[in-house]
Write the structure tokens for this entry.
Amino acid sequence: MTSGMSSVAEQLRQAREAQGLSLHDLAELTKIRSDHIEALEASNYDPFPAPVYIRGSVRTCATFLHLDVPAVLAALDAELAQSP
């Protein structure tokens, strides 16, 4: 984990909460299952069948939450590279 950079999970959760959106709200907006969004916010990538789905879901959420999408995806790639 690079210093000063919060995890992808934290960035997504903080952005969602800052905009007053519930997990259900974000699920409705993005058409991503709320349990998948919840998993992303917990850095739990087990529910996703492959990394491409994780990236797609994170990209969609980050876009809706007006985050810096390339930076979030770069951080995600770093996290995925560290996981077994």
Summary: Residues 9 and 41 are 4 Å apart (CA to CA).
